[in-house]
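Q: Focus on the shape:
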Amino acid sequence: PDRKIPAVTHVFIHHTTGGQCSSIPACSIKLLGFQKDHIDKKWGDIGYSFLIGGDGKVYVGRGWNIEGAHTIGYNRNGIGISFIGDFTKDAPASSMLNAAKALIACGVKEGKIIKNYQLHGHRDAYNTACPGEKLYKEIKSWKNYRKI
């Protein structure tokens, strides 16, 4: 159900693990797989708010207005952006990083994310290696990154 939620205070970066995708058809197949997996886990739908494909495109999971299922304790006041792929050993393409930054800027401009939001990796809130070592190293240099 569409729940009008107030502007969020936190942005969490995740990675899906597994393979990357580099086209709309390939990324769409990945999204269907995530959707099935997350529904099987009783999350109702894809847990992430948005996903970033290797093609540099943003794919909508739950979007801005539906509470996610991505970070325990922060789903109500945060959005989850997941990079499709495993970024433990390899860094995401610059097109993926730019897409995520543009998405966050759009969220701030549209009043979906507060201006002084806090950016975190999933591992900052939960005992996990997510979003992978290389992606985590990258986001620690982004504006608004904070440890919890």
